[in-house]
Amino acid sequence: VESSIPEHMREAWKKFSPTGFNSKETFQKEAVRHIETTLARSLYNCDEGAAYSGVALAFRDRLIMDWNKTQQRQTFADQKRIYYLSLEFLMGRALDNAMLNVGLKTVAKDGLAELGFRIEDVIQQEHDAALGNGGLGRLAACFLDSMASLNYAAWGYGLRYRYGIFKQEIENGYQVEIPDYWLDSNYWEFPRYDVTVDIQFYGWVNKYTDENGKQIVSWQDGEIVTAVAYDVPIPGYGTATVNNLRLWNSKASSGEFDFAKFNSGEYESAVADEQRAESISAVLYPNDNMERGKELRLKQQYFWCAASLHDIVRRFKKSKRPWKDFPDQVAIQLNDTHPTLAIVELQRILIDIEGLGWDDAWDIVTKTFGYTNHTVLPEALEKWSVPLIQHLLPRHLEIIYEINLHFLQQVERRFPKDRDMLGRVSVVEESQPKMIRMAYLAIIGSHKVNGVAELHSDLIKTTIFKDFVKIYGPDKFTNVTNGITPRRWLHQANPRLSELIASKLGSYEFLKDLTLLNKLEGFVDDKEFKKEWQEIKYANKVRLAQHIMAATGISVNPKALFDVQVKRMHEYKRQQLNIFGVIHRYLAIKAMSADERKKLAPRVSIFGGKAAPGYWMAKTIIHLINKVGDVVNNDKDVGDLLKVVFIPDYNVSKAEIIIPASDISEHISTAGTEASGTSNMKFVLNGGLVIGTLDGANIEITREIGEQNVFLFGNLSEDVEDLRHNHFYGNHQIDPELVKVFDTIKSGTFGDAGAFSSLVGAIADHGDYYLVSDDFNSYCKTQDLIDETYKNQEEWISKSITSVARMGFFTSDRCINEYADSIWNIEPLQVKEEAEVRART
Ligand code: 8GP
């Protein structure tokens, strides 16, 4: 391609292509130029918002050059690419990350200071990109960071929601949802108006035999909506690789634009059609670990899958390779079942459009896809009703039935005597109406299925997907324990800790190879080091205390033990266990003598997290936390000994403030319910200790950092079934201390008891599905142990340092390398520019 352009033209381009900045002066020049020309502002009306814009635009220019080169390099290399399909990318802010990844944060900091701005204030002007709910979406964001940092040729594909996850406000203790319009002043996306795909919905299937006797199947009529690509650059850390995240935006197809309506005066209805098309990518569904079966959600899924596949196929076809090579060029990873229709769509493209036979096509499909499962909760497993799919995607339903038929025939041949098996594993659930089980379709259409932590990967093999292990054998199922990017979750969120670590290890190389942290173990007895370690934690707590004051008006003492539980609100995550524990502590303090109170370690219980707008019980838990806070925080008997805080609107940028400030964080799900958890890793990496159940990645964290460094409690996953059984048959006595907590709530201490009766009732009278009462006693005892341990700060800090030193395994770089090896069969693309050493600040 390059040589097809005449030498003199190439010379002219090279001469004028921008070089970007790499010094303070050149940075300032670029930022000021953008403020004065791109934004039409000046010295006299440049506020922090405008300063942010100028800096973002300057860094964006820098990224674009590497981004263009990366895309060219990947095209020329013509090797296999990874496509990560996710309906959620919880990216958070981009500027700080961009500055650190290109190694020019110090340059920007000094440059801004001279221009009259503090870099921290400027960074805070940015609105979070919050295109996700929780763990699943943030994992996708960490994976993008790792794939770019490791130089993999990888693309993310998602939807460009106009509204991300709602903003949460708290009014009178209740959650209120505010729309999150985030696209104003967003400098990190590039509309590609020339990259569009027309997506079809509804219509009917026409089958006929052509003049050569060939069966032709065509999907006709219906409605067309256009997908427009918006590209977001994803910079790697300390490398010149900048990958691409492509988000699709929906708009009315220009072919559909109804001039007849305009001319006949039906202006309003013509506009309504436009709005209907735009509604597809308008809003992120705000459910975490819960599916709701709405038609618009299915439309989103197909719209995004079809646009992405079209793009991938178009890129493949440029290489002029035969179809059988497709899986050598393309690996598609399905982030949960949301993109499962991509399997059906690729089969449709191959047989209906490209004219391949069924078996050849299916062979290509299954070699291309891998499926990651993120939950075993039944309410989160996707099913779509057959009539809905029939209506929206008539040809896809036929193909799904055909996939199922081939599959069931194969099962019948292998297990001729097991009639029940066919009904159990069928993609079609024989309910009223019939439902398509998306997870089964995803398994059948993929060559590998993985869970996200060891326990979870074992559980899917022995419970929800047990029959499929019999059918395909165990090798199709594998584990890739989740990880987090240390760039954002250590270096960016906790710069002082990162710097201290670098000073001991001699460089920032640990950010690329996190196992190097183990050298910190050599410093656990270094007095000076321990003091600095403690000071940094304290400074982070001061910063959080300031945030708490600004956000809630509650004053907390940074010397108290900060006990944090921040994550989506869900009964299985058991924030109710935590707040019942807080009430128990409150009652204990009230009953203490003044002398006893003096011996108690002061504590701040910090909560944060959003509830799905339709999840009543989760909202009730938020309400209770706030009401308990109102009482406890104003009780003179209690003073500083206990404060209860609910931080509103937990999101990625708040996590960056909260996580480095925790002494203890809570990961207390009912054993067997939290697939992995990833905030557990973030907290430990920032020197916090954890209280947790033997669930998800807690188990592997414990294995790595040592049992003596984790506060474990509660029942084991293997006992859950029996315990539930006991509740069901009334063989269970609720712990008397928990009864006291319930009585306090019922007495109206925290306001109208009726508001909490369903919450208490679910545990006391309705089977206690999440086994709160079974774990309550052990939870409280473990909290007491935490109080005792915290009193010995020397020991506490040693635990903290040792834990950080042993966290190397939990980098998302390790995850991505595992996916690359065991699922994608892909190697990184070497980057020459990497040799140009990048400053790492
Ligand atoms: C989450 C899991 O709950 C969490 O344990 C895990 O760390 C995270 O995924 C990343 O693997 N799962 C979901 O958010 C989830 O399943 N969401 C909806 C698809 C139902």
From TrEMBL:
Belongs to the glycogen phosphorylase family. Its EC number is 2.4.1.1. Allosteric enzyme that catalyzes the rate-limiting step in glycogen catabolism, the phosphorolytic cleavage of glycogen to produce glucose-1-phosphate, and plays a central role in maintaining cellular and organismal glucose homeostasis. It comes from the Eukaryota. It comes from Knufia obscura. Transmembrane segments: none annotated. This is Alpha-1,4 glucan phosphorylase. The lineage of its organism: Eukaryota, Fungi, Dikarya, Ascomycota, Pezizomycotina. GO terms for molecular function: 1,4-alpha-oligoglucan phosphorylase activity. PANTHER family: GLYCOGEN PHOSPHORYLASE, GLYCOGEN PHOSPHORYLASE, LIVER FORM. It catalyses: [(1->4)-alpha-D-glucosyl](n) + phosphate = [(1->4)-alpha-D-glucosyl](n-1) + alpha-D-glucose 1-phosphate. The keyword Thylakoid does not apply. CDD domains: GT35_Glycogen_Phosphorylase (cd04300). NCBIfam families: P_ylase. InterPro entries: Glycg_phsphrylas, Glyco_trans_35, Pyridoxal_P_attach_site. Keywords: Carbohydrate metabolism, Glycosyltransferase, Pyridoxal phosphate, Transferase. The keyword Glycosyltransferase applies. Its cofactor is pyridoxal 5'-phosphate.
